[in-house]
Amino acid sequence: MMIKRIIPNVSVTDAAAGHEFYTEFLGLEKAFDLGWIASFRSPANQAAQVSLVSGDATAHEDSVLSVDVDDVDAAYALAQATGLLPDYDKCQAYIADVHSAFRSGS
Q: How far apart are CA 4 and CA 37, in angstroms?
């Protein structure tokens, strides 16, 4: 398993607000916006990315990191084998390109 990038998820009350700071001031491009999560990345370095999270209805709590890996099944198996899964029975992982694919392993 290779980690391609680690994206900080900033907990906010409204993920739809404040986008101008990231686009106009920091010069990031909006990678995606799902309403409850919006993500911005550098056009020059796509590994430089930050997401705003205001509540994932499918999770017990908001995530603080998104880890982009080349093989989500291998990452999930490693987390199971090492006992590093969260204390709830659902693990979410962004794979490949965070704005084009999402997979939930359980």
A: 20
Architecture of domain 3-105 in this structure: 2-Layer Sandwich (3.30)
Strand pairing category for 37-41 and 29-33: antiparallel
φ, ψ dihedrals at 82, nearest 5°: -95, 0
39-45 contacts, C-beta under 8 A, 24 or more apart: 39/7, 39/98, 39/99
Q: Is 70 helix (H, G, I), strand (E, B) or coil?
A: coil
Domain ranges (residues) in the chain: 3-105
Q: What is the pLDDT of residues 26-54, one digit of tens each?
A: 999 999 999 989 999 999 998 899 999 99
Q: Is the whole-model pTM more than 0.85?
A: no
